[in-house]
Amino acid sequence: MNRQSAALTRIPSVDEVLKTSVAGDLIARFGRQAVVGAVRATLDAMRTGMRAGDSVQSGLEDVAAAAGVRLERDVRPNVRPVFNLTGTVLHTNLGRAILAEAAVEAAAAAMRQALALEFDLETGKRGERDSLVRNLLCELTGAQDATIVNNNAAAVLLVLNTLSRDRDSVVSRGELIEIGGAFRMPDIMARAGARLVEIGTTNRTHMKDYEAAVRPDTGLVLKVHTSNYKIRGFTKEVPARELAALARGRGVPLVNDLGSGTLVDLSRYGLVHEPTVAEAVAEGADIVTFSGDKLLGGPQAGFIVGRKDLIAQINRNPLKRALRVDKVRLAAVEATLRLYRDPDRLQERLPTLRMLARPRADIVALAQRLLPAVNAAVGAGFAVSVVDCGSQIGSGALPEEQIESAGIACRPAGQGGSALIALAAALRALPVPVIGRIEDQALVLDLRCLEDETGFVGNLRALQTPGSR
Question: What is the fold, at CATH topology level, of the domain defined by 83-91+356-460?
């Protein structure tokens, strides 16, 4: 018998491993069936390693401990918190808006107990779930009526399908946007059953283009706010107020898709002005659609506000039920909207606005406090320094707007790009993954969105890189 065969015979059985105290503790935590599966998988991996010539620890306690590591990895949730140090506040891939504490508490309460979702407490009869947020939306936007679906793409789809199915939808060629994930406005219109009538050119669309396109078979005129790109130079677009007058005169509704959408003037917080929903309503749009989880700072949702008769039509569409939001999201939406009733304290209560308006001086001070901890964690293989950087709003909002920020840059001493990639991977492997960005031959940790300073420092202690001390 050769050495490898002899080693294979020394691998213990599943029953022997299960009798160890370590396995007993694992059974108490994870259940016998899960532990048996993990032990079998561990033993199989050991056999494979031995056959490949690897050095493998095959003692009973070693096997049980390895099975425990496997179980810990398997029970770790896929939906995990991360530290967003990318500099993009509303990062689509990292969940967009962080909810206000009031919204978190409302969502938790909705999950824990029964609630009056579609039940009228005054009459004791069936109610409408939209009524939970309708009055708030009308109050904050000046619209006659409002409804809610699961995101803004769904809102646009539902509006088009209701008001323009098998009819013309007139839109400027320069406003045929593409949003994340390669979803394009023409594709959404096609799925909604609307006939796209694109007018003008990419950079210039005139009133005469709309006048020529609006005919008896026109279902609506669509204006799309190009929140995720800008066309500059020799350009022309027709303002929403003028389009509203044309649409009203021709007897067709004007739909204004604001995309990100905001309920407050962002210039109040030192940012560039973005059209508000109330402004779009006041300019005469019959329907306005916008998102809940972007500039508004709430959970994912799509809002439709506007004329009462049109909202009633939209709510009668069978698609509305397929696109409706659940009780948890409704509770969080209501709590978020209520915060807007107190604009003087909105910034301190709404994380999105708080992060967007965070003074650069505060971020610089944070970077200087964190510099020693980051330096110790990444090790001698990197030069670590405080740097100026530019944050972005994200999620297609104000794409050209750079917000002055600060962060910590980690530059490799000599290994170049491979060292940066390794460091980025090591940060992602932390108990709470840290997500930064690589630019200018450095890994930059933009600190605009970091509020848990103590948790971040504690998390760094688990960092393992080739150059760490």
Answer: Aspartate Aminotransferase, domain 1 (3.90.1150)
